[in-house]
Amino acid sequence: MSINRRNFLKFAGASTLIGVTGTAVIEKILLTDAEAAVSPGSEALTAKRWAMVIDVSKIKTEDDYKKIIHACHSIHNVPDIGNKKDEVKWIWEEDYEHSFPGVSDEFVPESIEHKSFLLLCNHCAKPACVRVCPTKATFKRPDGIVAMDYHRCIGCRFCMAACPYGARSFNWRDPRPFIKEETKEFPTRMKGVVEKCTFCSERLARGLKPACVEASNGALVFGDLEDPNSEVRKALSAHYTLRRKPEVGTAPSVYYVIGGNEHA
Amino acid sequence: MLDKALTGSKGYWIWIFSLLAVIGVGVLSYLHQFDYGLGVTGMSRDVSWGFYISQFTFLVGVAASAVMLIIPYYLHDYKKFGKIVILGEFLAIAAVTMCILFIFVDLGQPMRVMNVILHPTPNSILFWDATVLNGYLFINLIVGWTTLTADRKGVPPPNWVKPFIYLSIPWAVSIHTVTAFLYAGLPGRHFWLTAVMAARFLASAFASGPSLLILLCLIVRKVSKFDPGKEAIQTLGKIVTYAMFANVFLLGLEFFTAFYSQIPGHMHSFVYLYAGLDGYSKLVPLMWISSILAIISLVMLVNPNIRRKENLLATACVMIFISLWIDKGFGLVVGGFVPNMFERVTEYWPSLPETLITLGVWSIGFLILTVLYKIAIAVRERTASWPELH
Ligand code: SF4
Ligand code: SF4
Predict the structure, then answer these.
(1) Which domains does chain A have, with CATH numbers?
(2) 3-class SS at B229?
(3) Does B6 touch chain A (CB under 8 A)?
(4) What is the pLDDT of residues B367-382, one digit of tens each?
(5) From ligand 1's centre to the CA of A164, what distance in Å?
(6) Which candidate in B341, B344, B347 is best for mutational testing of the A interface (most A CBs within 10 A)?
(7) Whether ipTM exceeds 0.85
């Protein structure tokens, strides 16, 4: 979390030094607010590399999926614009074939073929989105989370072209009128910037697990990939898992348990 | 010298005011986009770059093509290009200006564009693209303006400008190479992930830019007393022919790799563009028009008898320009997004405001081009009777 603070100070310092326009000043004020919301306390959860294991066989009904997605979208002020063109989403459902294109086999157990998977940003260890961003508005934190600074993003959408997972959404229009119940604890975004899942970095700072994990009844497991005793590592050694498009070399940190039957 | 642009025939002023009118409509559309957001365009979560970025990509090529005049003239002392080098440099200035404007109108938060400079990020190709584009604009402004000023005074260009002229050669190659790298380095976009992308960009640039130059030369000869020279135009015609063959060859390589290997990811975008995918085929007619125009124009150009007839050469150039515009100014960018990362198809078509903004930017480019050419022509008309300078 300290990186946020440091980056912010560096950024603030640079802006003042160069003596840029009023926009920068406004950005600074806004940033300070956002920073305050996520400044770390002693109860903060920390890790070397945060990761998630998703076992969709444990998500039974459509309502269970809805509950998980709603948990995320409601606390992060993700708008529901209601058309596919302007759509903004952080975590969503997709079938097996389209979750793992190129990997999906012709003959798979029905329970997998018709199962919905939950897709979200993979918080890649070698994220393409970070590599291409011309402003460092998308950056990787030391704990592995790929984070975003909505106040620095210029909306060039290079990161959307680069992400191999379609994890990023752009605000094609002002999202605020489409937020059903605004949460004051989390900043809303403006039109013209990109956004995506944050692995709930603001909750981790308060000692809480990501909202989707909490709402999942144990189907989503979250922890430190570099800690052999963590829950994610235990899940990984107990199950055969898949990651999306491992061949592109981004090293995703989200794993999927491929069970094949209800008892897997 | 700018005063030269302020006197002109009735036709000249009608042209200028028509451009201004289109620019006005474009500016109004942009204000609407600025207010509402990029949602006024046809772009979506799945096709997140559209017309603006593809125009930018196409025009970088037009800008880079000035080297096709500079290399023969300055490196090989090909005198026949002496009179028209300036036309190439001024075309480059207009084209780069359009490129920069197209990037600008594509930004979601245009007021923050300075963030690219405030937070320089060398690992981002976009950072390098912004750097080389601005550098190229700067070089061509210096070179174009000093050589023309020297010409007007009837003296050879000052020596200090020579290094800039030589620098402009690798620089022109760099702008198009870096632009290709925007695409060719992205994991997961099979259509763009190809090592010949930069080579293909350069080949198509050296076909589209010089064919536009040929057309401009013919127009210049029609509307003024300045004759760019029959032979110079013929040489340009040969350059277009070779470059277009190289371009079609490179495209053929892409087809071979995709379809002989039968790797689905490599084939999908081509299938979408040329045959339609999962029942979606909006771009198919356009891509076929592009291919047919390319073939007809090549058949024409390769035949010296046809090429030597200027009106037929002009026809072939129009075809090549349209063909390459479709290929690079539309299909190349959109094709990379279809199918999307989940192998589903979302189609794209530019919206009305998006089209008007695009036309507005093109008109700004043509306005700059007209004014610069007007000045160059005025100087050339005056010095036409003078003995060869260089
Ligand atoms: S999934 Fe996409 S957006 Fe998320 S870190 Fe990886 S490349 Fe970036
Ligand atoms: S849209 Fe924003 S986050 Fe994405 S690459 Fe551009 S500046 Fe970076």
Answers:
(1) 5-257 (3.30.70.20)
(2) coil
(3) no
(4) 999 999 999 999 888 7
(5) 7
(6) B341
(7) yes
